[in-house]
Protein 1
Amino acid sequence: MNLEGQYDPKKVEDKMYKLWEDSGFFNPDNLPTDKRGKGKGKSFTIIMPPANANGNLHAGHALVMTIEDIMTRYKRMQGFRALWLPGLDHAGFETQVVYEKKLEKEGRSRFKMEPQELYNEIMQFTLENKKNIEGQVRKMGASCDWSRQKFTLDPDIINTVYGTFEKLKKDGLIYRGKKIINWCVKHQTSLSDLETKDTEKVDKLYYLKYGPFVIATARPETKFGDKYVVMHPKDPRYAQYKNGDKLSLEWINGPIEASVVKDEAIEMEFGTGAMTITPWHDAVDFGIAEKHDLPKEQIIDFYGKLLPVAGEFAGMKISEARPRIIEKLQAKGLVEKIEENYKHIVKTCYKCDSLIEPQIKEQWFLKMEPLAKPIIKAIETGKVKFIPEHYKKISLHWLKNIMDWPLSRQIVWGIPIPASPADKPGEVETFDTWFSSGQWPFATLGFPESKDFKTFYPTDVMETAGEIIFFWVARMMMLGFYITKKLPFKTVYLHGLVLDAKGQKMSKSKGNVINPLDITDKYGTDALRMGLVMGNTPGQSLALDENKIKGYKNFANKIWNASKFVLISTQNFTAVKKVALSSTQKEHLKNLKTLQKEVTKLMDDFKFYYAAEKIYHYFWHEFCDKIIEESKKDIASHATQYLLLEILSASLKMLHPFMPFITEEIWGQLPAKNPSTSLRASKNLLMVESWNTTG
Ligand SMILES: [Zn+2]
């Protein structure tokens, strides 16, 4: 008997993790081959969302580790060949942004570095973080197969990514296009629509006289090159003008000749219903220009400064130029009125909040519609299950309205795009990081030839944050199906955000970030895991309260003390074939069986929060408060001792996926198997014991 004092996670956790790792059972190839339980040696696969190798594990990661480990341990105990494949993501733009901040602090800038030098430094930084994160994943008790760990910049992954790119190109789905893109002036890269935020902004709306028209704009600085005035063909106010009509008029820097364009894309209700277009710097205008084959002229450069077309304003930044341009227009009598407090939605960079400057730039694009089609069908016919279910509708809506995906990024940190015809020699182009992680399930399993791919693909569950459903989950389905002709997973389980105790989003600036490692240090990993899973329904955000976790530390102590009592009381227990149980004792065993069935059903239905709650209440209020208390009056009885051992071992099994450390430690103290109990057969670890077997 080694269960002394209170439960001390520090004495148990690292030792136990090493024991598990050394056992080899994280690798499904090493699992016992007996045909036990529901799984009977079938495979069960989860690919871990590759953590960004640019910082520390945060509370969201801790949640991922907890939920996925629960799934994996449960299935492993059921006799499945459970594979949980860990990985790390170079996380292109994300990591480069983190590294740029580091450079800034050191008074350096990436724009003053050679691309290769920058790449090497970020690689060094990433590899250091990789080690760090691996340690933190272990700390969470994650029973993932480290021997199969993958990194998005591993040579075989890069090969797979290139293979996919080649196939897409051959199939005519990749094109190099001069299209309008979202440009972040600060980060000097293009961004996909998903990497921009819609932000409400209050500006002035200027009504400018443009010949006989009045046009409304919030961005007069883009108007220098505007030679086309567009109106809706059905707008009665402009019935006298025809498509192609030419007008001479006075404009910012002198007289120009303008042409009338009629197009249905114009909202008659906005402003005066007439507007001029700036195809280089506005997506709607770009569409109109494409349709009517109009020329496009760049007015603002990639650093956010006005070009020579702006005449005397050339070289100025927008903020500086705007009031001066208005001043000039006013002097020329071209300002009709100024509407203050004009509220509108603008796009901003999701990392730095800078205003996105739409620009035309040559990029690689991926045609998404042909990729989305089969996925829409698969979702509609229920080939993939969403938990919670409302994500089905959200995904379908997005897929049905999908836009082509700009694949290239102007950053060094990533997988270089092969033979990329860059606009300028020496300019680097790498793939959007989601292009590689979008291939993660089949790339990590060694598509197409490897044994692993044949054994473990398609995977079973994709568990990740609801907020990256479009970034990642939808793209994995599209690319996975396109390459392998199979959906990469059967179930998508999406968790919500982890918030602070008050239900607020954690952020460094608010100072309310809960570091999961501080929590494990204080209360133990098992307690943190319980805090992350109890009451956490999929898709909903979870308020992580330290008091709650403290409560689960108490629960760990309760388990410890109850086990200590049972083990001390049953030290001389010997097995006999027939146990003479009282009717009350029989009732207790019957209730235990009912609980096992209920918990199994809940686990199969992915209701881990509810399963955990059931076991928690059973152990505390039924086993400890009632059965153990009752047993004290005839603890010498063979039947009583049998009952206690039976319930304890069954409880440890059910608790194991949730609280792996303490349960494994106690399991190791149980007496060896005997013919009439379900106690351990040999020196088996609890992690590979059969789920839910008694008697
Ligand atoms: Zn930015």
Protein 2
Amino acid sequence: MDHPERSTNTSRGLGRRPALLLLFAVVGGLSLVLTLSVPSTAFSPTPTARISAKPTSTTTAQNLGPPPPQFPPAPTKPVVYLTFDDGPDPTSTPVLLDMLASYDIAATFFILGHNTVNFPDVAVRTVTDGHAVANHTYHHRRMTPSGSVAQLQKTQDAIESTTGVLPTCYRPPYGATSDGVRAAGSQLGLTEWLWDLDTRDWDEKVANEQIVAALNQTESFSYSHGLEGPIILMHDAGPEGLRTVDALRVWLDTNHTRFDFRILEGC
Ligand SMILES: [Zn+2]
């Protein structure tokens, strides 16, 4: 005899299996539908997440996604070399140094030996303000081949003993150079620098507006000495020294951010 209860139980058990399988199938199907209906992007890192992820090595960074965007390099400013001759002057030079400091501009000062000795504080401040001091002879006399070495050496000694800096560059007065002058400069290890743009600030008949107009030619002025921009000639001594400072201030007020102001190479 069969066991009816077992049989019944069996039959009940057998009877529940299709229902359970159906339930599993429905739940499983529903999960599948839900899974498929969710946007796939939610399960993969976005490009932003890939870039911001901190790489553990260069290789990992390369594998994480595309490289960061490349920005164009900052535009390069035109280079210019401001030079001031014949100082240091007790009146003009401190005013000029104040102005250059306010614009964070460095320049090259071709100074005279006798002015350096007479106004040592101004010479020292020129150096401590970050400018270059260079040799412009002792008395501003026209250099002669036979006397050039002595003129330059006496000025080297005056500048070094006053400021602690031994110049490495020189500019002959009036730009009057020659093979003999250059040989003297070379003998003392000095580089000669003349200029490109003469502002003519030394001429009392030239008005302030004309000096500013000359400075306005800076960006387009030609040069051929191998530097990266023109050398500007100005003067910070004598009766016209303060006028130069005034004209330069007018020009710098609108142009100080447009240029890369540098000290002459090697000075
Ligand atoms: Zn001079």
Protein 3
Amino acid sequence: MKVAIIGAGASGLMLGGLLTQKGYDVTIFDGNEKAGKKLYITGKGRCNITNLCDTDEFLKNVVRGEKFFRSAIYSFSPQDTVDFFENLGLITKVERGNRVFPESDKSSDVIKALLKHCKDVKIMYNSKVEKIVKAEKGFKIFLKNENSKEEKNVKGDYVADKVVIATGGESYKATGSDGSGYTLAKSFGHKIEKLVPALCPIKLKEDLKDLEGLSLKNVSLIAEIDGKKKELFGEMLFTDCGISGPIVLSMSSFINRAGNVKLSLDLKPALTKEQLEKRLLRDFDSNKNKNLSYILKGLMPNSLSIFFAKKCGLNLEKKVHDVLKEERKIIIDNLKNLPLIFNGLYPIDAGIITSGGVSLKEVNPKTFESKLVKDLYFVGEILDIDALTGGFNLQIAFATSYSCAKNMMALP
Ligand SMILES: Cc1cc2nc3c(=O)[nH]c(=O)nc-3n(C[C@H](O)[C@H](O)[C@H](O)COP(=O)(O)OP(=O)(O)OC[C@H]3O[C@@H](n4cnc5c(N)ncnc54)[C@H](O)[C@@H]3O)c2cc1C
């Protein structure tokens, strides 16, 4: 039985190795000159391979496709991912928030382990698949420009009994995951749910020239999404035209399909308005003859205090003893809820992942086989499943591939 896998990324490599272990004749095609280009840049070059939390917790971190993904995570858990890599000789470590990394902190070691797992798989590099056609028996695979250099007997087309599309999303296109897999899926009549960026920086319509590079810890980003409130606590930073960092990336995954978004920042989430009022009164009392700028600098970084005062219409040069009660109220209200003008998300290429993809209604959640075309499968990020940061997305790639392999093999 010949299986062609399109894509030598996280999911394609996991699947390829599993299928050869059971005697399938597997060829992986990848448009790049090497495997795992996206894997290489994951986790800032350290590759956060999974998140060692329990299944319920895991599913809470899946933003889309949680129900569909349920059976896959039960058949291949985060612990199974750790065991899988450890069996291949990759020592792992668990960091804050159950994030699992290779002990070496090198994503290249994860790729090496996956290639070891694929020792019996033929991997055709520089082989971008442009078209797949269902033949009378199996599929014909056409490569772009007949550019395959790896195998003499392939001249632009290849025949397989089964095809798995594991081409990833369409963000960070330079890694090879350029969205061409969606075109392949569409050619078989599959619906592609709207593609939008996820885990992506947010653009603001604000003058941020003095704030670029400033990072804030222990703040809450609040979004009112079509009237519903979502609040995320942690770390963020300002970019040249917006905001990024952990809580911003996560928030993007919740607002990427919303019609109406209002954003604001709680700069003092640990304090209530009453506690802030007391603190301000104390500060004012002991610094009566200082400028208001002095008080604000005690509450936030200097560059932010200038931005803050401008937004609130406050005069930083004003003497503290001249600050009116109403102005004190404005300060407190804005410390707890500083509005930021939302200007959309960065483009899809800047997202850590792509949200949307092959419609889950048309894929079997156990075998990952297309419900429209027999012997055609989809695994990994091409599916309409996405999760937050923390190792969840790679676990989705590994678990969908494991389930696909297990159940493909169970079939006659
Ligand atoms: C900067 C960054 C950091 C990340 N960090 C993490 C992290 O630490 N932890 C985590 O869990 N997730 C992380 N992710 C997300 C994770 O990398 C992806 O979700 C995961 O790689 C998806 O696996 P995949 O196999 O579906 O696709 P990919 O890994 O993207 O692989 C797809 C492969 O298909 C090939 N391909 C595409 N089209 C074709 C075609 N037509 N013909 C032939 N080959 C084709 C591509 O060249 C590519 O090699 C990160 C993503 C980015 C961009």
